[in-house]
Amino acid sequence: xxxxxxxxxxxxxxxxxxxxxxxxxxxxxxxxxxxxxxxxxxxxxxxxxxxxxxxxxxxxxxxxxxxxxxxxxxxxxxxxxxxxxxxxxxxxxxxxxxxxxxxxxxxxxxxxxxxxxxxx
Length: 120
Known about the structure:
- The structure is a single chain.
- Helix 1 links the parallel strand 1 (7-12) and strand 2.
- By secondary structure, the protein is α/β, with parallel strands linked by helices.
- It contains 4 helices and 3 strands, in the order E-H-E-H-H-H-E.
């Protein structure tokens, strides 16, 4: 990527990287470290046309939520958008970050969570 002077690196973390969720202890411990990696690596490669960002999905309608036994309606009531996210909404964010139009977005952690995160 550096030789070609163009590249996109995206790390999928979770909203728990910024705001711990009580039922996800391992995630709460590991994912903030990935944000440190994004920040450090992005500073090293941005000048070479390579962007590094983290994408933080919130509650998204996937099989994983079913596996965790999460009540969709209960969670949706806590999300300002009033619903769970759809996988294609998350994919749209990733697609944009992979595009040339996102060339100046680097070193960021961007939530796709319907407004769930309360932290700044």
